[in-house]
Structure formats: C-alpha cells, structure tokens
Amino acid sequence: MTPTSSIAAVIVTYNRVDKLAKVLDALEGQTRVPDKIYVVDNASTDGTRDLLEKRASERLVHLRLAKNIGGAGGFNAGMKAAYADGFDLIWISDDDAYPHEDALGKLIDGLARFEEVSGHRPTYACSAVRWIDGSWCEMNTPATVWDWPRFYSAEDRFFMVRSCSFVSVLVPRWAIAQHGFPIKDYFIWFDDAEYTQRLAMAYPGIFIPDSLVTHDVGVNQGVNYGMITEQSIWKYKYGARNETSFRRREFGMPGVLEFLYQVRTQMVQGRLPKKLRWPIYKAIWNGIWFRPEIEMPPQND
Q1: Got the DSSP string for 116-154?
Q2: Torsion 14-80-193-8 (CA) sign
C-alpha cells in the first residue's frame, strides 16, 4: 500500500441515527479521511434518510436497501459497491463504533510496515476496540495465531491474528479479489469471524493496538451460549447455524462436534432451561445442511 492508495469506508446501519451521526463525524475527522464513505442503510425507519440527505456530499454515498438484510448482507452490498468503484482499500465498521482520529492512518501504516518488515502481505488489519469506559470490548477481541508476536517489536507494534470482528478492519483489494466477499446469507453473527478466517487461511491478518476505536454498545460482554435470554436467543440461533456451517465446510463433522460440545458445555454451565437450549441444538442441526454461496468479484478484475 502507498500513501496514494484510494480508500473507501463502509458503514452498515439500521435505526441508529444518533450514533451514525457520531460515526460520520469521526470518519470526517480522520487524519487520513476516506475518499468515499458508503453508508449501507438496512431500510431504517428512523431519521437515517433525513440525516444522510442533510449531509449529502460527493464523499458520502447512501446505499438504501429495500429491506433489512442484516449486517452480513449490508457488508456484502457495501463492499461490492466499493470494490466495483475500484478502491484499493476498504475499511469496514459498525454504526456505533467511533474511530479515534488516527485509527485509519495507523491501519494503513501497519499494512505497509508489516509487508516491509516481514516480506508478507497481511490479508487485513484491524483496530483495538475499547468499550465506552475505556476497557477492552470483549465482543471485538481478535483471535491470534500461534506465533502471533513473531514480527512484534517496540517500534513495530502489530500482532498476527486469524480472525477479528467487523468493527474497524481494513481489507486490501487484492485480498477481496482472491477470496471474495462476506457471506450475505448469514444475515447476522459470525459473518465477520467467517470472513476474516477465510482471508487468514491464505496469510494472517494483523492487529494494530495503536489504532483505537470506541464501541458504543450497552453491555460489554462476549458471545457465551450460557448467557442466552428469551430476548437474545434470535441472534444466538443465527450464530449457531452460521458457525456450524463454517465448521462443516472447513473441518468436517469433527469440527461440528467440537462446536456442539462447546455450546452444550456453556449452556449447561449457564443452567439454561430446555426451552432455550433446544432451539440452539436445532440451529446447529440446520447449520450442518446450510451451504451459503461465497461470492467472488468478476474474473476479469
């Protein structure tokens, strides 16, 4: 990557107009401002359309979808649009995540410096995500590879990772050309883990601890199937189906059985009643047969 590389930001939103306004302010305040900002609007019913009309500019692209196709579908649509427009780097994030002013610049510098130091091209670079009180945001913690500190030093602060969330991750065009787009049919949950693991199978991504983002979520907790409630189970069902599908594709039935054991253990430890456990088992069963398409860019790109 070079200082002249073209950069697009992709933000997926649904009914978070106030937080979206703060995100747009943060993007415009970057030391390296994205050349285009694609806001993928999942058919919001609040004031999102009005906000984007008021802030209309050549930089801002409002992609309003006909219906809510979830975060996975939104990122798929936004990345396709940015890719079709020819951008070298695509920076994706959520509508409730506020990047610090040099967050994007640190990611760009990290990609270039890692290639210089290691001789390898990382498939993505991700930020350190903090909660609103400054602590680490549990749901956005990257998973490292076994030799994660191989190229780390006091001067070069980056770790190799095998997966991360979609809260501030920078993906080079070449990686998309080779490995495709996020799976739109996942709808929500595990779309980020599947995509970044898919990329990292070619070569790991990198975590840049000095690239900071604040994630404005109500509760700071990761994904644990022992914490399912009647209000949250709909998300966990998507997560269980999607992760099962991924594990079946990449690791076969042994991978599915390992996941089933982990989920069952968490639910037993959480003392979940049967009415909350059985829908998750059903989602895992459905995931065994779920074969969503991985879409690739045009061959002639």
Answers
A1: HHHS---S-EEEEEE-TTSSB-GGGPPEEPTTTTTT--S
A2: negative
Q: Which of 279, 288, 285 is nearest to 247 (CA)?
A: 288
Q: Backbone phi, then psi, for 58, in 5-degree steps?
A: -65, -25
Instruction: Please name the residue that has the structure tokens 């694609």.
Output: 38
For residue 98, what pLDDT is reported?
98
3-state secondary structure of 15: coil
Mean pLDDT of 165-194: 97
Average pLDDT, the chain: 96
Question: What residues does each domain of the chain span?
Answer: 7-215, 232-289
> Torsion angle, CA of 264/265/268/274, rounded to 10 degrees?
0
Fold held by 7-215: Spore Coat Polysaccharide Biosynthesis Protein SpsA; Chain A (3.90.550)
pLDDT tier, 293 (very low <50, low <70, confident <90, very high otherwise): very high
Predicted TM-score (pTM) of this structure:
0.95
